[in-house]
Amino acid sequence: MASSSSSQSWEYDVFLSFRGTDTRNTFVDHLYSILVQQGIYTYKDDQTLPRGETIGPSLLKAIEESHIAVIVFSENYADSSWCLQELAHIMKCKDERGQVVMPIFYHIDPSELRKQKGKYGEALAKHDSENKNVESWKKALVDAGNLSGYVADGPETIFIKVIVDTISNRLCAPISSDNEDLVAIKTHLQALKSKMEMESDDVVMVGIWGVGGAGKTTLASALYDEISTKFDSSCFIKDVRPSDMPHPKPSSRASGSSACSGTPPRLPRIELGIVDGLGWFRWSYGRINKAWFAKIAKGNFIFSLVLKLKTEEVAGDVGRLIKSRFRCKKVLMVLDDVDHLDN
Questions:
Q1: pLDDT tens-digit profile of 267-283?
Q2: Are 157 and 164 in contact (CB under 8 A)?
Q3: C-alpha closest to that of 69 among 55, 59, 54, 79
Q4: 33, 85, 132, 152: which is deepest, by most CB within 10 A?
């Protein structure tokens, strides 16, 4: 009986199984790059196994330690006994360890796996003639072909985005056991999410306040884990101190103000609630104020995280960088342990 995947301890988020000659430098390369950009820890084996050899224990271990196995079935996938050994072990891990299996049918029909006709049938017949363990491979192909998967269709960039978004959502674990210890964490989390204005095009700041030990960081971490994948970029900065991070002063000006420097245009501070010693408030900005945001961004450091650049690559006019790189991005920034709103 398979154990729940959420209860397992996984070394890798994703294991990629693919036929190198078909997709290594094209589809799989693009998919792997986006997965890495999204912070998804992915195992991609780039070694070439000598003909006739079996896959080694390190590769089998990597399969076993991966939360999700993404199998890219391409035209010549079944030609490789290495690929078929990977597949058989993946399907075993699905049954015994609760591993999530996501088949991708890259320019082939899923029925080719189930019926084992055409190139897949020819490849299996060849393996059979070489006295290889074909029966277990045949079963693995049929089982994988019966899974709900993804058939390549339309623009590849959109297809890859759909796959990566699905993986991100699967990896978004529910509230951890540590967070369950916080009183009413789920109630807090739902209340806080409702104030985030996720569909709004405005810039929104939400604050969590309360006495020390009330669970502010725990709540912020739970919120970040749950919603960060819905943003183009995100970062969580711990242990922020007033001496390092200037903060905006509350203002009574409406968000329609046309101020271009100093404190950004905003709504008056809105008290949104207090439950079990925790409270939250929200500011909503009609647009980004570059000078203020440059201060909040703590110079190059946060930009390097959000934009996934090396710190030394973030140089020059930070305000111009904000305007050019953030104008079409949906970004989540969490600043933890902020002691004062006034600075």
A1: 334 444 444 555 555 55
A2: no
A3: 59
A4: 85
Q: Which positions are catalytic?
A: 86
Query: What is the three-class DSSP state of 43?
Result: strand
Per-residue pLDDT of 89-140, as tens digits, reads 999 999 999 999 999 999 999 999 999 989 999 999 999 998 778 999 999 9
Determine the Cα–Cα distance for residues 97 and 200; give it in Å rounded to an integer. Answer: 41
Which residues make Cβ contacts (< 8 Å) with residue 182, sequence separation at least 6? 188, 215, 218, 219
Cβ burial of 253 (10 Å; 0-12, 13-18, 19+) is: middle
Please check whether residue 182 is in contact with residue 188, taking contact to mean a CB–CB distance below 8 angstroms: yes
98: Cα separation from own chain's centroid: 20
Residues 37-59: b if buried by 16+ CB within 10 A, e if exposed: ebebebbbbeeebeeeeebeeeb
DSSP per position, 305-333: HHTT--GGGS-S-HHHHHHHHHTT--EEE
- Stated as kind and residue range, the H or E segment containing 68 is strand 66-73
| Residue 342 token pair | 């006034």
Q: Could you give the CA distance from residue 119 to residue 125 in angstroms, rounded to a whole number?
A: 10
What b/e string do you get for 143-155 counting C-beta neighbours within 10 Å, with b at 16 or more? bbbeeebbebeee
In angstroms, the CA 56 to CA 66 distance is 16
Taken in order 221, 225, 230, 232, is the CA torsion positive or negative? positive
User: Using an 8 Å Cβ cutoff, are 331 and 306 in contact?
Assistant: yes
Report how far residue 304's alpha carbon sits from residue 287's, in angstroms, rounded to the nearest whole number.
22
166 CA to centre of own chain: 9
Nearest CA to 123 among 49, 46, 29, 19? 19
Q: What is the pTM of this model?
A: 0.62
